[in-house]
Amino acid sequence: MTKIKAPTGKLGILTPGMGAVASTFMAGVIAVNKGIAKPIGSVTQLGHIRLGKRTENRNPLIKDFVPLAKLDDIVFGGWDIFDDNMYESAINAKVLDKTLLDEIRPELEAIKPMKAVFDRSYVRKLDGPNVKTATNKMELAEAVMEDIRRFQADNNCDRVVMVWCGSTEIYIEAGDVHSSVEKLEAGLRNNDPAIPPSMIYAYAAVKMGIPYANGAPNLSCDVPAMVELAKQTQAPIMGKDFKTGQTLMKTIIAPGLKARALGIRGWFSPNSLGNRDGEVLDDPDSFKSKEVSKLGVLEEILQPEIHPDLYGDLYHKVRINYYPPHGDNKEGWDNIDIFGWLGYGMQIKIDFLCRDSILAAPIVLDLALLLDLAKRSSLYGIQEWLSFYLKSPQAAPGLQPMHDIFLQNQKLLNTLRHLMDEELITLLGMDYYY
Ligand SMILES: NC(=O)c1ccc[n+]([C@@H]2O[C@H](COP(=O)([O-])OP(=O)(O)OC[C@H]3O[C@@H](n4cnc5c(N)ncnc54)[C@H](O)[C@@H]3O)[C@@H](O)[C@H]2O)c1
After folding, report:
1. Phi, psi for residue 143 in degrees, rounded to 5
2. CATH number for the domain whose boundaries are 10-242+357-419
3. Which of 200, 205, 195, 264 is nearest to 235 (CA)?
4. Angle at 117 between CA 173 and CA 157, to 5 degrees
5. Average confidence (pLDDT) over 366-389
6. What is the DSSP letter of 71?
7. Closest protein CA for atom 17 of ligand 1
8. What would the pLDDT profile of 184-196 be if each residue is shown by its tens digit?
9. Whole-angstrom Cα distance, residue 422 to residue 420?
10. 313-327 confidence digits (pLDDT tens)
11. What is the fold of 245-353?
12. Which of 18, 28, 141, 144 could link 22 by a cystine bridge, Cβ 3.0 to 4.6 Å?
C-alpha cells in the first residue's frame, strides 16, 4: 500500500490573486464550515467513487475513501496588488449575495492580502498599491518564501499549498531561460523579462517543496525548469487554467460526438463577460494566453489526423468579449456545425449562462486538497491525474495531454484507487456473464 502521511494539523491554502475566484472559494469554504451552504461542484466533497465489482455496492464518498484535509482544518492567505480584505474583495466581485457575506464577515475580514509581486508590463490593464519592491526577481522570490514561512508560523500550519488565482498575464513562449533550474535562477537574478510574476510565486513555492497549481493560462509552472525543480524538492505541481464554462462544455460534448462518429465542420465559441478578468482579457496579449489554452482542446479530443473524414476540415474559433453589464455572469455561446450519415448537416447551439467564479471555486478547493494528498503520498512533479480540472493540462514531455473529461475522470478515480491499493476499474465485466 502507498504510504500516505495522515493530514494532521492545519493546511494553509495560499492564493496569489485574491479577486473574484479566490474570494468566492474562501467565502464558500467558510460558509460550508458554518453549515450555511453545501460544497456543490466539489468532487472531493460530494463525489463518490465505485470500488470493486458493481455487485459489491461499495460507493463511498471520495473524502471518506482517501485521507484528505478536513475543510475546518484549512487556513486561508494570499497576495494581491489591492489591499482589500476578503470581505471587501467578495463585495467588489459581486458574485455572492451580501446577506451570505454578512453572515461570515468577521472570518472574511480577517483574511488580508500580503504585498504582491507585480509588474504592469505583464498585466497591462491593472495597477495597484499593495506591491513589493526589490532590486531583482530572485529577491522577490525570497520575499515570497519569507511570507510563506511567516504565514505558516503565525497560523500554526502543518502544511501549505499554493494555487495561482491571479489575473491572466500576457502570452510568453517557453524559451532558453525556462529550460533548466540553473538558467531560471540566473534569469531571476538578472531580471530576465521572460520571467513574469506568476513564475516568481511558482518558483518560491516549488523551491520550498510546496505543492503548486496554476489556475490561469500563463506558463507559471509549465516550463522544464519548474518540472526539474519540482523533482529536486519533491513538490507536486499542475497547470494550467481552471476548466470552467465553455471549455468544460466542450470537453463534455466533443467526446460524445466523436464516440458516435459524427463529423464536425465548425465550432464557433464567443464568450462575453464583464468582470475584472474580462477586462484583463480585453488586452490582446492576455487574450492570446487564454486563446492558446482554449483552442488546444478540440484537436486533441477529435484527433483529426486519424479521423480526416470527420474532423479534417474543422474550423474552430474562440472569442472573448468584455461586456461589463454581465459582470461575473459569463455567457458562453457555442455554435456547432455537425454532420451525420452521408454528410447531411445539423446544428447544435449552446447558450451557457454560467457564473464563472461559482464554477471555479470548487476547482480551487479540489486542486488544493488533492495536491496536498499527492504531497503526503510522496508524488511529485507533474500530477497529470489532475487534468480533470484544467483547460490546458500539463503532461510529460512528448506526451499529448488528455482533454476528454470522461477519460480525465477515469484517470483521477483510478489514481485514487491506486493510492489506496484498490483494484483499478476497466469496465470489462466479462465475469458477470461467463
Ligand atoms: N472564473 C473562472 O471561471 C476562471 C476559469 C479559468 C481561469 N480563470 C483565471 O483565474 C484567474 C482569476 O480570475 P478572477 O475572476 O478571480 O479574476 P479577478 O480579476 O477578479 O482576480 C484576479 C486578482 O489577481 C490580482 N493580481 C493580478 N496580478 C497579481 C499578482 N502578480 N500578484 C497578486 N495578485 C495579482 C488582481 O489584482 C485581482 O484581484 C484569472 O487569471 C482567470 O483567467 C478563471
Report:
1. -65, -35
2. 3.40.50.720
3. 205
4. 110
5. 98
6. G
7. 277
8. 999 999 999 999 9
9. 6
10. 999 998 888 888 888
11. Dihydrodipicolinate Reductase; domain 2 (3.30.360)
12. 18
Q: Which amino acid is at 4?
A: I
d(CA 224, CA 204): 16
What are 114's strand-pairing partners? 79
Whole-model pTM above 0.90? yes
Identify the residue whose C-alpha is closest to ligand 1 atom 38: 19
Which residue bears the cell 495597484? 128
**Which amino acid, 319?**
R
The candidate with the shortest Cα–Cα distance to 208, out of 251, 148, 150, is 148
Cα separation of 285 and 288, whole Å? 5
C-beta atoms surrounding 60 within 10 Å: 12
Measure 32 CA to ligand 1 centroid, in angstroms: 23
87: cell is 470581505
Residue 85 contacts residue 114 (beta carbons within 8 Å): no
Domain residue ranges of the chain, discontinuous segments joined by +: 10-242+357-419, 245-353
Residue 85 C-alpha cell reads as: 480584505
Rounded distance from Cα 21 to ligand 1 centre (Å): 7
